[in-house]
Amino acid sequence: MAPTGPAAAAPSQPVKAVKEGSPRSQWTTATRWNRLAWTGGALVTAGGIVAATLLVSAPRPAATLHLTAAEADNQVRELVSVEAPLFEIDTTTLRAYGSYRGLEIWSGVNAFGSPCLVAVHRASGSLSDARCAPAPADLIMDVSSSGDGFEGFDGLTGDGTIRFMLRGDTVDAYVHLMSEAD
Asked: Using H for helix, E for strand and C for coil, what is the string for the chain?
């Protein structure tokens, strides 16, 4: 007697045997803990690849300034006291990080115990900028061309910003120039 109905319409297909020792057979016969270990390892590897990609693609500073042994002279102390009185920076705490594009970078501590950054432009005899931030915050100071361009800053031309970031005993400098189309 021949089968009738849906079973009769479908041709019989042989069941393929899983070859012993193949990755599929190892996965199907693995214990639950082995599967979890493989899955966890794959996730950790993927996370490592993502972290490495983010580290490699992060913006790099144009320069890193290191702490120097230079002492603040009368001009620097006077500029900080006269041109940035609201920051209340203690001039005895000023430490030099050298110069970048004609700007001397100094750090100090204000009356509230917060670290501060100061940019002195000796060529013009002025304080370009000063910023303070409480200790857990990142200390960032942006020196802008303010529409006048960077012609006075050793070789930079155009409008933009130089960002200085205090990182322990170093200051990273990032240059951000606006394109001509802006």
From this structure: CCCCCHHHHCCCCCCCCCCCCCHHHHHHHCCHHHHHHHHHHHHHHHHHHHHHHHHHHCCCCCEEEECCCCCCCHHHHHHHHHHCHHHCEEEEEEEEEEEECCEEEEEEEECCCCEEEEEEECCCCEEEEEEECCCCCCEEEEEECCCCCCCCCCCCCCCEEEEEEEECCEEEEEEEECCCCC
